[in-house]
Q: What sequence folds into this?
């Protein structure tokens, strides 16, 4: 009989890629989405799995503990992947309580339901490199100290420790993946990589003139989402529940990502000025990038570089997509979208 997996956050970037992976492996997948006024299954459609016979979509808000209990009791899953979250860091500063409800209490509801209904269910918690914050260590692995810089990061740290605590206290197979930034053509448009690739595509097609950004000097370790969901699955197949970092080990600034994209689009740019007055002009002198201070955060993480040695050694996880390939993939996809719309 095929294994049954629940994925919370099925309408998000990782939810869609993970669903495609599990369906390809023969799982029966139960995708959890919350009620919204306009259905948002476009990512499942983009991957060609929206109508898959082994995919069942179920409306449940993970902030509702009774609904979460009922869900787990009725599905009787083998594995649960908790990907649902308010995942946009700036919104966590303006909506800290809602962020905490979903990201922290949502995980608690799932772990309690597993503990009470069936402690044999394997549980994956989507933890994040944001928990390291400005940690001070040059690279971050499973032993690095945490120093969260946002309500998002603190809410995720609660869920992370809760996952470890439930594994230790109740012998659950509950494990946590500390994933560094991972992107794709399915990334939400407000995250910086997709905002850049979409805007450069629009500039290249003459649809907009200029891209507005915040902190150009933050550095991130960016990988390809499709390779990261493979690691999530591998963690739940491992012998024991463990924490694993998934990352590429390379870090680039937002400014470097912008430069790669303009180079790929064959629009050479040159930078002028500094601070909030920094701009980039193209060869005709048109301003193509400018700073808008509204995109600055109350506090930001300066530099993240992950060390995924443990996942490479124990899981055999080995991502191959580098930043240049990722930029190309995302820019080409956004060129196609913008040509069609
Ligand atoms: P995403 O695209 O923002 O997807 C988040 C998903 O959570 C969406 O399906 C969203 O539904 C759903 N959701 C939000 N609140 C919910 C609620 N109350 N009940 C049920 N579902 C709810 O995020 P992602 O990039 O795929 O990331 C997946 C997970 O990994 C998240 O937990 C994120 O925090 C974490 N993570 C992401 C990264 C990264 O770089 N992508 C790195 C580390 C960790 P709607 O579509 O209705 O909004
Ligand atoms: O910002 C800077 C911004 O929003 C990256 C989430 O998936 O990854 C993601 O969180 C950096 C920050 O991602 C703009 O200040 C400059 O330093 O793309 P982002 P994030 O905050 O790193 C982690 C691992 C998660 O877990 C999260 O869920 O880019 N930046 N200018 C900007 N960022 C945005 N969004 N927009 C700008 O205009």
A:
């Amino acid at each position: 009989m095929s294994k049954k997996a629940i994925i919370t956050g099925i309408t998000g970037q990782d939810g869609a890629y993970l669903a495609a992976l599990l369906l390809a492996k023969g799982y029966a997948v139960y995708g959890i989405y919350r009620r919204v006024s306009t259905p948002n299954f476009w990512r499942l459609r983009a991957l060609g799995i929206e109508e898959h016979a082994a995919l069942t979509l179920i409306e449940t808000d993970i902030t509702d503990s009774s609904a979460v209990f009922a869900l787990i009791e009725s599905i009787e899953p083998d594995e649960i992947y908790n990907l649902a979250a308010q995942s946009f860091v700036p919104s966590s500063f303006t909506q800290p309580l809602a962020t905490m409800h979903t990201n922290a209490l949502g995980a608690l509801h799932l772990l309690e339901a597993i503990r009470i209904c069936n402690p044999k269910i394997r549980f994956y918690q989507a933890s994040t490199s944001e928990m390291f914050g400005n940690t001070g260590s040059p690279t971050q692995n499973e032993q690095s100290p945490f120093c969260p810089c946002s309500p998002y990061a603190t809410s995720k740290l609660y869920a992370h420790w809760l996952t470890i605590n439930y594994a230790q206290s109740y012998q659950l197979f509950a494990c946590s993946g500390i994933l560094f930034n991972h992107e794709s053509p399915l990334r939400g448009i407000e995250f910086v990589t997709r905002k850049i690739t979409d805007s450069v595509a629009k500039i290249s097609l003459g649809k907009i003139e200029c891209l507005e950004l915040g902190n150009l000097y933050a550095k991130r370790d960016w990988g390809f989402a499709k390779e990261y969901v493979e690691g999530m699955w591998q963690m739940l197949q491992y012998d024991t529940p463990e924490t694993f970092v998934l990352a590429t080990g390379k870090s680039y600034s937002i400014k470097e990502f912008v430069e790669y994209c303009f180079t790929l689009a064959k629009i050479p740019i040159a930078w002028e000025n500094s601070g909030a007055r920094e701009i980039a002009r193209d060869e005709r002198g048109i301003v193509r990038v400018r700073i808008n201070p509204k995109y600055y955060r109350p506090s930001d993480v300066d530099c993240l570089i992950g060390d995924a040695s443990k996942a490479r050694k124990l899981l055999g996880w080995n991502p191959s997509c580098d930043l240049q390939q990722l930029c190309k993939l995302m820019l080409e996809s956004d060129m196609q979208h913008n040509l069609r719309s």
Summary: Residues 87, 89, 128-130, 180-181, 190-192, 195, 213-215, 218, 220, 254, 295, 297, 300 surround F7E (ligand 2) (CB under 6 Å). The chain has a mean pLDDT of 97. The radius of gyration is 20 Å.
